[in-house]
Amino acid sequence: MGSRGMHATPHGRRAGHRRRPGRAARLRRVRLPLVVAAGVLLLGSGSAWFVSWNGAEAGNETRNDAAGPPPHAPGPTAGEDESVATDPTPPAPDPEAEAEADDGQDAHQEQEQEREQEPDAEVEESELPESGPGTFRVAPGGGEPVGGPTLYRYQVQVEDGIDLDPDAAAAEVHAILSHERGWTQDGHSGFQLVGAGETAEFMVRIATPGTVDDICGQYGLDTGGEVNCRVGESVMVNLKRWMTGSPQFDGPVEEYRALIINHEVGHALGHGHEGCSAPGAPAPAMMQQIKGLDGCVANAWPYDENGEYISGPWMP
Q1: Residue 123 pLDDT
Q2: CATH no. of 136-272
């Protein structure tokens, strides 16, 4: 009966006492801090790993940059290289380069002066001297013989004071005398250029009109300041004719020089004057073409292209 007055608690526990938590509750209270702690540890560990990995990648980029730009990297742009292009400090002068530049300029000026001093083949008669001293410069000899066995040695002389190179004149005379249509075509005449002091059968002497008149006049010839002559051993060539040609000769002045030499040397070989053979025919080299052609065509050579002598009737 006494037990009726007492209130029974669930599960037969006594009243006034708190219920003790069960095993599951105790486990939950232990696990929660462990999970939180594990999470914190995992978070810290992950952060440290991320920082370490990212730092290693950054280190690799730094080493690559320090090694230089990658292959085929573009060069500096104009803006990046502007300081080089606009450097106000001039380079130090190079004495050797300046000396070479000065030498080149001097050589250019000398060439210009030489061109200005060279005589013009097509000059006016009024530009040529009318007289000279009557003394001559002799071109060097040493030329090889040309032509046949009958050798005629000759000199080339240019009067002092004439702006004409004796060497150049001698080369031109040699080319005329050795030409295939020249006097060597006769089969026996030969020619050789010799120098001063050497024995010569004749002398080609280019002189002013006054000097030609003086020397030719000594033999009774009147050249009148216009024409050439052959007297004694001298083939006298009037400078006016050598430089300007003849109004009767319509070819170039170089061709007329060939006529002068062939005509006067022909006299030295024993040929006399000849006239025009027929209208339209080539004028003989021994014709006085400066006095007129009489219907013939101007011609500088004693032989034609076929090796035939160009002849005409005898003239006084």
Answers
A1: 76
A2: 3.40.390
Report residue 162 CA to chain centroid gap: 32
Q: How far apart are CA 265 and CA 102, in angstroms?
A: 51
Amino acid identity, residue 68? G
Quote helix, strand, coil % in the chain, to nearest 5.
40, 15, 45
Number of C-beta neighbours around residue 141 at 10 A: 18
- Please state, in angstroms and rounded to a whole number, the distance separating the CA atoms of residues 302 and 52: 111
Sign of the Cα pseudo-torsion (81, 83, 87, 93, in order): negative
What is the Cα–Cα distance from 156 to 145, expressed in whole angstroms? 15
Domain boundaries, the chain: 136-272
The residue to which tokens 């280190």 are assigned:
59
- Widest Cα–Cα separation across the chain: 203
Could you tell me which residues are beta bridge partners of residue 150?
A: 189
pLDDT digits (tens, 9 = 90+) for 69-106: 333 333 332 332 222 233 333 344 455 544 454 454 44
Q: How far apart, in whole angstroms, are the C-alpha atoms of residue 10 and residue 268?
A: 173
Q: What element of type H or E holds 255?
A: helix 253-268
